[in-house]
Design brief:
It is a single chain. The chain is flat and about 80 Å long. The protein is an alpha/beta fold and 395 residues long. Strands 1, 2, 3, 4, 5, 6 and 7 form a seven-stranded mixed sheet that branches. It has helices at residues 15-23, 52-55, 94-100, 132-151, 154-164, 168-175, 183-193, 204-218, 233-239, 249-260, 283-300, 305-316, 351-358, 360-364; strands at 4-8, 40-49, 65-67, 70-79, 106-112, 221-226, 244-246, 264-265, 274-275, 319-325, 343-346, 366-371, 377-378, 389-394. The two termini are 26 Å apart. Among the domains are: 4-129 and 220-268, P-loop containing nucleotide triphosphate hydrolases (Rossmann fold), CATH 3.40.50.300; 143-217, Helicase, Ruva Protein, domain 3 (Orthogonal Bundle). Helix 1 (15-23) runs parallel beside helix 10 (249-260), helix 4 (132-151) crosses helix 8 and helix 7 crosses helix 8.
């Protein structure tokens, strides 16, 4: 499980509640800044359609979970310390926050869309703070953090590249390697920033523009518009978009706990829930579920937590789910486990990429593969599709 998603935001916006709801972990929650000092790590799950229903088979997942034909594929989540203005200068827990995010493939930015926390994360009246400012603030903090890394020995590095005829993106990729940012991201960012080939002519404003482009390519951000049930409707509507999702982490946590206790039927990502044990609940619990049904589920079609994860994985990162098997006729591994593993790969990945993802030996000894749906033999450079079931044959 090499992929990591960072859960970020200023203090007191429901970041840890989101993390707990997404991972079913139990990190400390309290309504004051800097409750989270050390990053919490957990496992959250992206939902994919499991082929078991299509083939009418009972699957035996090993690296993932299947619930009624929905495959839940694990991803590492990291919930980092709350971010305050000028974090890149070390204010608050800034340096720690940014260091914790180094390996994150993308970020889910938890925003208090109700506007009831100020820029420092202190409680204020609903609508008193403009949540749109939080989007800009987080992006700028990450931009300046990347800029700080780039500017270290910049003149010396850019001059050396010019003298030796070395590509600047290669040098920058080496410098930013600890951030999980690839040379391809930097090449695209330079193009996007419209910079000249001669890096020695780039000024501070060019480097800041470049840092911003690198952030967009290498650390894309999805907005979780948290506390949407308490927010003014016009603010939620104003901020909603493909990568900005109305969310109620508190409701998701309440529903998962109610499902655990057997009060309701509910799976993460469901648009509704069913009460199955009303007689075992007290009046307060019934009232809370009524509130969630009316102000969250009916209004937004779900709590938004699972939708944030799925959108980050399958749209923002553009990944697909692929199922490797050792017997394409029975869709099983050598022990007879049906559809045992589900792997997340970037869209456009080839069969050979899957082979290496499963095991280095499988990649190095690759001979051919078989598509279990069509029973066609495919080569190393065959492009994979979402939901493919592939038998890899190796030496």
């Amino acid at each position: 499980m090499s992929m990591q998603i960072g859960i970020v935001g200023k203090p007191n916006v429901g970041k840890t509640t989101f993390f707990n709801a997404a991972t079913n972990a139990h990190a400390e929650i309290a309504p004051y800044p800097f409750t989270t000092i050390n990053a919490n790590k957990g496992v959250m799950y992206a939902r994919s359609k499991c082929p078991c229903k299509e083939f009418n088979v009972q699957c035996n997942p090993k690296n993932s979970e299947c619930r009624d034909g929905i495959r839940y594929v694990p991803i590492e989540a990291i919930d980092v310390a709350g971010l305050v203005p000028k974090a890149h200068e070390g204010r608050g827990l800034g340096n720690k926050f940014l260091d914790d995010l180094r390996q994150a493939s993308c970020l889910i930015h938890i925003i208090d869309v109700s506007g009831s926390t100020d820029e420092e994360g202190r409680a204020c009246n609903i609508g008193e703070h403009d949540p749109q400012n939080d989007v800009k603030f987080l992006e700028e903090e990450i931009d300046y953090w990347i800029l700080g890394i780039i500017k270290k020995d910049w003149e010396k590095m850019s001059r050396r590249c010019k003298l030796e005829g070395k590509k600047i993106e290669k040098a920058l990729a080496e410098k930013l390697t600890g951030l999980g940012i690839k040379e391809g991201d930097i090449h695209a960012a330079i193009k996007k920033a419209g910079l000249t080939e001669d890096a020695t002519t780039w000024r501070d404003e060019n480097l800041l523009h470049l840092s911003s482009s690198i952030r967009q390519m290498g650390k894309p951000i999805l907005l979780a518009l948290n506390k949407s049930d308490k927010a003014p409707d016009e603010m939620v509507k104003k901020m909603m978009g493909e990568y900005a999702i109305p969310t109620s982490a508190e409701s998701e946590l309440a529903l998962s706990k109610a499902a655990e206790k057997g009060f309701i039927e509910y799976k993460p990502g469901d648009a509704s829930f069913t009460i199955i044990n009303k007689e075992k609940m007290d009046e307060k619990q019934i009232k809370a579920l009524d509130y969630i049904r009316k102000h969250v589920m009916e209004k937004y079609g779900g709590t938004g937590v699972q939708k944030c994860i799925d959108t980050a994985v399958f749209k923002l990162l553009n990944l697909i789910t692929v199922y490797p098997v050792e017997d394409e006729h029975h869709l099983s591994d050598k022990d007879g486990n049906v559809l045992p593993d589900a792997y997340l790969l970037p869209r456009g990945s080839k069969v050979l990429d899957l082979a290496y993802k499963v095991h280095t030996d499988l990649g190095e000894g690759f001979i051919r593969a078989v598509d279990a749906r069509s029973h066609r033999v495919v080569g190393a450079d065959h492009e994979l599709n979402d939901g493919d079931i592939i038998h890899i044959i190796a030496k």
